[in-house]
Amino acid sequence: MVKAPACPQCGSKRVWKDGLRYTSAGTIQRYICRVCGYRFSEPSKNLRSFGAKTCISNACQERALLAEVIEKEKRVAGATTDSKAKSAIINFLWQLKKEGYTETTIWNYRRYLNWLLKAGANLLDPESVKETIAKRKGWNETTKCIVSAAYATFAKINGIPFKPPRYKAAKKLPFIPLEEEIDALIAASGRKLACLLQLLKETGMRINEALNLQWKDVDFKRNVITLNAPEKRNNARAFKISDQLASMLKTLPMDKPKVFGITYHTAEQCLLKTRKRLARKLGNPRLLRITFHTLRHWKATMEYHKTKDILHVMKMLGHRHLESTLVYTQLVNFKTEEYHSAVAHNVEEARRLIEQGFEYVCEVDGVHVFRKRK
Fold it and tell me: How far apart (Å, rounded) are the C-alpha atoms in residues 193 and 268?
């Protein structure tokens, strides 16, 4: 019985046979390490001819074996570099966690660094990273800028000298969907996702602010939600919610401290599947552009259009600087002037219309007329 060789990467002797490698010189046994998962072959073993008997000269065998040795050395060197880079990524992410970065930010950094690894960049070599970013044809200036910034943070924490290339992110106005499109997406979603989307639509919260919301922050008697744990050093704030959202919240299980009890990635996957199915069903590709943050842009834009008070919008969003809110003043030039109209015969009907986003227009024959932009 032939004894299996040790793993050339970690030195472990716990290896399995992993099929045969067919070369011009014959077959070579392949192995896989049970400890580190590295695959390798043993070219120095006796070759076994396969198929028809072929007369192979000693020179041909030597060249084939030499090529196998060189290839194995390249694989070992590449695997070692890749292993060091992955280890550095893990240490980098843990350092971000200790410094108080949010889970979403940490996840995005990990995704950007993995993009570079898959593109063939050596994260321990800044020049290799610059070359990889410059050659990526599928990345626009904004993506290259974001990836460069992520690697700059990685290099700073790991003590790697890196001067970021001169990429500049393009400033684009956010996508603002129609309210009917948002309502259709909410109606097509499951109970928990629909409640989450309705909450984002009414309050303009960030997605992680909503996911970290706890039951103690919800006052069903007054229909008020208090946000005491805002993201990005924003201000704490309170929101008045509709009876519809309050009823949707009451249908959720209350056996855990958090209202939704799911992670960002779980919520994102549910949204992606739901909007893809709905876009195909309704034949509306615009639905594919709706994200959790889109609802924050929509709420801010509608609120400014209704009140024309930028300070009110700033307070609602929790911004600390007015410059962050001024972008929404550029989104109120709607192409059409079409409205939904409704009438109220008493105070209760008027209250419900106002909660649904309708604005008062006038009074005709004792009936109050309201309207809301389509």
Answer: 10
3-state secondary structure of 29: strand
Alpha carbons 360 and 372: distance in angstroms, whole number? 9
| Res 241 pLDDT > 90 | yes
318 vs 209: CA distance, rounded Å: 11
Over residues 315-354, the pLDDT tens digits come to 999 998 888 888 776 655 554 556 778 888 888 888 888 8
SS3 content of the chain, % helix, strand, coil (to 5): 50, 15, 35
> pTM of the predicted model, to two decimals?
0.63
Three-state secondary structure string covering 213-281: CEHHHEECCCCEEEECCCCCCCCCEEEECCHHHHHHHHCCCCCCCECCCCCHHHHHHHHHHHHHHHHHH
Q: How far, in Å, are 120, 127, 132, 140 from residue 135 at the CA level?
A: 11, 12, 5, 11
Q: Which domains does the chain have, with CATH numbers?
A: 15-80 (no CATH), 101-157 (no CATH), 179-292+314-320 (1.10.443.10), 339-373 (no CATH)
Distances (CA, A) of 300 to 208, 310, 364, 374: 18, 9, 31, 16
Tokens representing 122 are 């050596």
What is the distance between the terminal CA atoms of the chain, rounded to a whole angstrom? Answer: 79
Query: What is the distance of C-alpha 79 from the center of its chain?
Result: 28
